[in-house]
Amino acid sequence: MKIALLAGDGIGSEIVAQAERVLRFFIEEGQKIEIEPGLLGGCAVDACGEPFPPATQQLAADADALLLGAVGGPRYDLLPREKRPEQGLLSIRKALNLFANFRPVMLFPELANASTLKAEVVSGLDILIVRELTGDIYFGQPRGIEIREGQRFGFNTMIYSESEIARIAHVAFQAARRRNGRLCSIDKMNVLECTQLWRDVVIETAEIYPDVTLSHMLVDNAAMQLVRDPKQFDVMVTGNIFGDILSDEASMLTGSIGMLPSASLDENNKGLYEPIHGSAPDIADKNIANPLATILSVAMMMRYSFSEEQLAVRIERAVRQVLAEGYRTADIFETGMRKVSTTEMGDAVLSYL
Ligand code: NAD
Ligand code: IPM
Ligand code: MN
Question: Which residues are tagged with the site Important for catalysis (predicted)?
Answer without folding.
Answer: 138, 188
